[in-house]
Amino acid sequence: MIAFTGGTILTMDGKEFRSGAILVDGPIIHSVGDKVEIPSGCRIIDVSGHYIVPGLIDAHTHLGLEEEIYRIEGDDVNEVNEPVTPQLMAADGINLFDLGFSDALRGGVTRSLCMPGSANIIGGQAVLLKHYAPGAMQMIDKNPWGVKAALGENPKRVYGERKKSPVTRMASASLLREALNTASQALQDNDMSAAERFKWEPLMRVLRKQQPLLLHVHRADDILTALRIKDEFDFNLILQHGTEAFMVAEELKQRQVPVCLGPLLVNRAKVELKEVSFKNAARLAELGIPFCLVTDHPVVPIEQLRVCAALAAREGLGEQQALEAVTINAASIIGVADRLGSITAGKRADLAIFDGHPLEFRSRLCQVMVDGLLWGDNSE
């Protein structure tokens, strides 16, 4: 067992302890509070004067799929031979030894959802990663977890340059509908070939509501198209990016559709980003839209997730809301809040310890724990 004592614990489950303790038993948080009984023989780590928060979660990345340093050699984020490829799995393209994993840990980010890019209408299947484990294979937390799809500029540009469909938003929406319709028919067709079933099974899981559709959309018009398609096929939808989501908030609230908001620490590199602003986080909060903050790593380096939260707080988001946006909200939106996202007895022991408040730019990470393992700790 390991006990962290003396620190300020920001649990993200509605409690805060100014000089509390966390008792970790293996990969699990055993207990947390200001009156934790520490058993004899327990390893005690004094973190007095420090802040402890749950390990941060980035719900939209291409970590290890679009590698650090490498260009074509390490770029496995988009398969652009055809626009509908639900059978692809991000896990098969990830370099689990990529430098981005250690960068993430240095920023206190312990888990991330990694997914294919947005060149295709349907790019493939996402995977939930943990950034530290005894072996590389154990870094795969949940696979697959969600199907990545895209509307808007990216598929239009990629396939327009190849003189192939889609070259318009109409064709993009039609291809997405066609794929979902094929998967819907496959649910009833016992005579479908094994090869066809292999391709469409990921979308069949979406239609069974066993996993979400992770849909890349920036502009309000593309968001409305996404909502029309959700209405038609009745699946769980999570908007990715959602730059103009605040403009269609009532439609999102009506359907209880959350937003993985970001990247925000960027310039207006394309038309879809005209409304990009850190103020958008406060706008979504005021409008009652569930959201988390994401980096879209490597667009924004994953270790800067905490900085994105701090900048959102500077631009009007509440301090507590900003921390929730990179912890418990992210866990809730991607469906893992039963075991991640807060410092709660019974949850996985993912912890980030800073020498100052985590939203203070000058604060430094002191220690990070993933599933009860201290990163870089030679005593374990």
Written description of the protein model:
The strands form 3 sheets. Strands 1, 2, 3, 4, 5, 16, 17 and 18 form an 8-stranded mixed sheet that branches. The protein folds into 2 domains: 1-54 and 342-380, Urease, subunit C, domain 1 (Roll); 56-340, TIM Barrel, CATH 3.20.20.140. It is built from 10 helices and 18 strands. With 380 residues, the protein is α/β, with parallel strands linked by helices. It is globular, with a radius of gyration of 21 Å. The N and C termini lie close together (11 Å). It has helices at 99-106, 153-160, 169-188, 194-207, 220-233, 249-255, 279-287, 305-314, 319-324, 328-333; strands spanning 2-10, 16-25, 28-33, 43-46, 51-54, 56-61, 109-114, 122-125, 127-130, 140-142, 147-150, 213-217, 237-241, 259-261, 291-293, 351-354, 365-370, 373-374.
Topology, please?
Blueprint: E1 2-10, E2 16-25, E3 28-33, E4 43-46, E5 51-54, E6 56-61, H1 99-106, E7 109-114, E8 122-125, E9 127-130, E10 140-142, E11 147-150, H2 153-160, H3 169-188, H4 194-207, E12 213-217, H5 220-233, E13 237-241, H6 249-255, E14 259-261, H7 279-287, E15 291-293, H8 305-314, H9 319-324, H10 328-333, E16 351-354, E17 365-370, E18 373-374
Parallel strand pairs: 1-4, 1-5, 6-7, 11-12, 12-13, 13-14, 14-15
Antiparallel strand pairs: 1-2, 2-3, 5-16, 7-9, 8-11, 9-10, 16-17, 17-18
Helix pairs in contact: 3-4, 3-5
Q: Element order, helices and strands?
A: EEEEEEHEEEEEHHHEHEHEHEHHHEEE
CATH superfamily of the largest domain: Metal-dependent hydrolases
Largest beta sheet, briefly? 8 strands, mixed
Specify the CATH class of the largest domain: Alpha Beta
The counted number of beta strands is 18
How many structural domains in the coordinates?
2
The termini sit apart by 11 Å
- How would the global form be characterised? globular
- Taking Cα atoms only, what radius of gyration do you get, to the nearest Å? 21 Å
CATH fold descriptor of the largest domain: TIM Barrel
Low-confidence stretches: none
pLDDT averaged residue by residue = 96
